[in-house]
Predict the 3D structure of the following.
Amino acid sequence: MDLDEPINKQPLQADHHSEPGPGAASLDVLVYDDDRSYRALLRSMMEQSHDVRFKMLEAGNTDQMESQLNHHTPDVVVLDLDLHGKSGMEWLRDLHANNTAPVVIITGSGSERHAVEAMKSGAYDYIPKAYLTYDQLVKSLINAREKWDLLKEKEELQEKLAHMAMYDSLTDVLSRHALLEQMEFETQRTNRYSRDLSILMIDIDHFKKVNDTYGHIVGDVVLKEVAAILQEHTRRSDFVGRYGGEEFVIVLPETGITKAVVLAEKLRKHVEKLSITYDGQVLEGTTISIGVAEYERDTTVDAFIDRSDQWLYKAKEGGRNQVQPHIARTK
């Protein structure tokens, strides 16, 4: 683009000269156009807004653009397509890939083909310079940011819903459904590669008595504290899940029975030291019973869980606050 080319300035409306009020919304707009006079025109348009307080950041070359992006997080980016060095389309793709900000293309050298390409590459709007007006500029910048914010809210909601489906809402460990899916995957992998696999079936001792004595709110605190201990003292490769009520299951990939029992004892001792204070009440003596099972080749997930549950029952029968292991007959 010729830096000295004449600009097709649009008439500016005289009634836009009032300053935005103190409660007006504000937008930081980064304009990258190597025509200084056109940047000045865009600045003058933004300064006339009485509905939105615009702060315009500007770049006239690649170095200035990179510097602005390194020092600021703009709300909207305005790009020309015909730039020296790295093209506007290349910048558009990079900004879209990096999730930087919504991009509005305002260009003097575009075509319908360029417009289609820009919108497919992530642009929120495409405006030929010859047709740009104050109203169109302000509307485009505001709409681009609003659409961007709505998209981000939708993505955050989807992530939240996915998290809710995968994790138990109270303890933030895996939900029963997610836990069983993970166990299905791990048993298949163990069958395929003949690896070790163990699980711990854990039950909080006398949990009903806790609820009856202290109330369900304290019971929930106990569940969360126990879950936190289980998470804290297991590996990142292990999977902790709430199986139901006061029962938890820990899936231990690449782990034989001996190491699983060592971990179970460590977890039991950590829980035994737990002291919970809630609303002036101090609850000590929380304990857990653990049944440990090692995977037997071609066993179903249900049978695997059932075996660990049988040994949990033996731990309960044996007086609670203990670990009972079952050693697989075959690998």
Notes: The mean pLDDT is 88. The domain at 176-326 is CATH 3.30.70.270 (Alpha-Beta Plaits). The longest strand covers residues 25-32.
